[in-house]
Amino acid sequence: MKKIGFLNFGHWSSSPYSKVRSASDALLQSIELAVATEELGADGAYFRVHHFAQQLGSPFPLLAAVGAKTSRIEIGTGVIDMRYENPLYMAEDAGAADLIAGGRLQLGISRGSPEQVIDGWRYFGYEPGEAETHADMARRHTEVFLKVLNGEGFARPNPRPMFPNPAGLLRVEPHSEGLRKRIWWGSSSNATAKWAAGLGMHLMSSTLKDDENGKPFHVQQAEQIAAYRQAWKEAGHEGESRVSVSRSIMPIVNDTDRAYFGHEGESSDQIGFIDATTRAVFGRTYAAEPDVLVKELATDEAIAAADTLLLTVPNQLGVDYNAHLLESVLTHVAPALGWR
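User: That's the sequence. What structure does it adopt?
Assistant: Structure tokens below.
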């Protein structure tokens, strides 16, 4: 069985065609879609984080609200840009949200992607150290965050505290036991996938990847997954590693679907540059009648290798339509592929 959830970028726009016109709409509809997803029998609600954009930017209030409104599904991010984060404050927020959700957070973090502004993390008060790149800074923040999540005391207590302290060094509170084992790294390269495995993080691989050998997107992604799992094995971690991949899958089962996505039927991988030096391959959109989708998706090697599939949703089309898309995948596609 494969876990299936959605990945919501949380766009809002004043366009007359958008059903998500404001930040309030984006947040409240995200909660509604998560509730609908649980009712449909899917497995997860995940949210993308972008700063300085009309998208979801502060994940933890949203994660906590979804956790309070649902009882079963996994709740996560895909991904939080660690260049912008204070690791200790983030550990407090994450611990609180995970406790509210009853231990269901699956927190995706990463170096981040190109943002809306130049070096946006500088506005948040962060600067790479001497001889350190912004990617190095993200990994340094990550390593501190992971260490704090272990729950060991490190801060020297005040001898005259306002409230009595437990014995020994103090840790960040609230602490949620087990959250450290539910951290994922969003990786676009084989090297960072192996780095994540070494630190005991699960792997998130999205709809784009560094083009490392010119092969089709799904083949390169499957190779990345294999390299990650080998590195996890060599690191000797307890427990099983997990891997998620993201896909745009649009079953066409009615005229509305056809009007929105009928033109995507000839979609193919695309090549582009995510910065001045990084060539990337972008995965295709799958849009067709269910019987065609089943045949096409059966050849996707990365989906076959992953245990979790995150469906990128066109959130501006509204909660009802996105719930319909999820239901179509769960009903018309997933059983035929053995995902359900």
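The chain is about 35% helix and 20% strand.
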